[in-house]
């Protein structure tokens, strides 16, 4: 296998993975749809930074510990599950608090504007990605198969992960653009509460699924 054929084959695999709706999609759409453009791109960059880190760690053999050590995998799995459940529950609880607060339906919530920062979104995206052991397990299982014989493992691993990042950025740009259309329908506080309840439920469900090991 040449480096060129390896990159194209890996691009096909991770391209299909990128298009599959999941936690990343929910986070990006929710953040962008609420009008937090900077925060949405922060989430995107955080997720992709996590992907690049998993690729580098896999190439160095560090993530092999997750598959070789049951305890290490379980600790990361439960930490990730707790974080996702906490994030989802926080969204859900926040919608009920806002529901009882006296404000006009077409008001723009001030706290949402204040939270629109790249740094905050980056932390959320990076934490979500790095605390998902399934991403590490995927890279451990798949990445070595696309490293040609004789190639430098670290350099090739980072190059392959960069392909994944590039595809993720392209798809994320499509999601952010689509969310701008949704934003027109989310001007009322009621619509925003509904979005947060749906997204919070999805994120918490991912956490529960991760905890159950599905």
From TrEMBL:
It comes from the Bacteria. GO terms for cellular component: plasma membrane. Keywords: Cell membrane, Membrane, Transmembrane, Transmembrane helix. This is Threonine/homoserine/homoserine lactone efflux protein. It is found in: Cell membrane. It is a multi-pass membrane protein. Coiled coil: none annotated.
């Amino acid at each position: 296998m040449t480096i060129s054929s390896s990159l194209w084959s890996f691009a096909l695999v991770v391209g299909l993975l990128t298009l599959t709706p999941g936690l990343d999609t929910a986070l990006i759409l929710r953040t962008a749809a609420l009008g937090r453009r900077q925060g949405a791109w922060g989430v995107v960059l955080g997720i992709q930074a996590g992907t690049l880190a998993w690729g580098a760690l896999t190439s160095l053999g560090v993530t092999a510990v997750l598959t070789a050590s049951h305890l290490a995998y379980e600790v990361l799995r439960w930490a990730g599950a707790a974080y996702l459940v906490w994030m989802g529950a926080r969204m859900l609880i926040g919608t009920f608090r806002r529901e009882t607060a006296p404000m006009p339906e077409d008001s723009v919530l001030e706290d949402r504007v204040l939270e629109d920062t790249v740094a905050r979104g980056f932390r959320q995206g990076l934490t979500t990605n790095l605390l998902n052991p399934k991403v590490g397990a995927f890279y451990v299982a798949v990445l070595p198969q696309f490293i040609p014989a004789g190639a430098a493992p670290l350099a090739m691993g980072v190059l392959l992960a960069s392909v994944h990042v590039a595809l993720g950025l392209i798809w994320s740009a499509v999601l952010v653009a689509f969310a701008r259309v949704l934003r027109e329908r989310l001007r009322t506080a009621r619509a925003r509460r509904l979005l947060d309840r749906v997204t919070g439920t999805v994120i918490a469900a991912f956490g529960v699924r991760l905890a159950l090991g599905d």
